Structure to design on (198 residues):
């Protein structure tokens, strides 16, 4: 594999990734061949293989960047990782400032927000945070609460993208925050809910 910090490598990878996005406006991911992708990127197959083993590696690279961004948000959130207002606000800002990127990423993986590594990472983070505030802390309950929370929030974002990004993302984020905390009322003491609504 090539040196990922070399400017020529970066440019070639960006060209291949852009070509993949371009092809996705014409056909399904499963119908795209490496020969076709290489031709669209104006590189030969040998060059493609110097950078990626398969088309799924290109998709994985997109997803890894997104996971890194979400991970940074969770690590650097102003207060607790479970400050829903803060975390959702930062995720919303990330989506707003990179809307085109997310639209492209969802073309590569339409189930990005409903299954896979993004959902798993956010679910684990919320499950860990719930241990500190939940009045019940058996594993099954914690898992169910984190699954409910993440599935609901990601479903709202996914629906917003499906609608062509119409309407305010801030409204979607506020709905996600309010629905999450209301859904947790039976499991988290009122004073803790007040804290995480900040």
């Amino acid at each position: 594999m090539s040196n990922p910090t070399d400017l020529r490598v970066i440019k070639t990878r960006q060209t291949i990734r852009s070509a993949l996005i371009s092809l996705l406006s014409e056909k399904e991911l499963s119908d795209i061949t490496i020969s076709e992708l290489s031709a669209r990127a104006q590189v030969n197959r040998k060059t493609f293989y110097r950078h990626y083993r398969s088309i799924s590696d290109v998709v994985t690279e997109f997803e890894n960047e997104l996971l890194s961004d979400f991970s940074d948000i969770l690590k650097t959130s102003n207060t607790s990782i479970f400050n829903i207002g803060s975390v959702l606000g930062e995720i919303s800002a990330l989506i707003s400032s990179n809307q085109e990127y997310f639209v492209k990423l969802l073309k590569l993986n339409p189930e990005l927000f409903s299954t896979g590594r993004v959902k798993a990472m956010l679910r684990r983070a919320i499950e860990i945070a719930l241990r500190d505030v939940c009045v019940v802390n058996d594993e099954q309950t914690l898992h169910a609460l984190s699954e409910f929370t993440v599935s609901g929030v990601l479903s709202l974002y996914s629906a917003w993208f499906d609608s062509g990004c119409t309407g305010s993302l801030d409204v979607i984020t506020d709905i996600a925050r309010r629905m999450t905390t209301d859904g947790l009322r039976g499991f988290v003491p009122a004073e803790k809910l007040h804290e995480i609504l900040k």
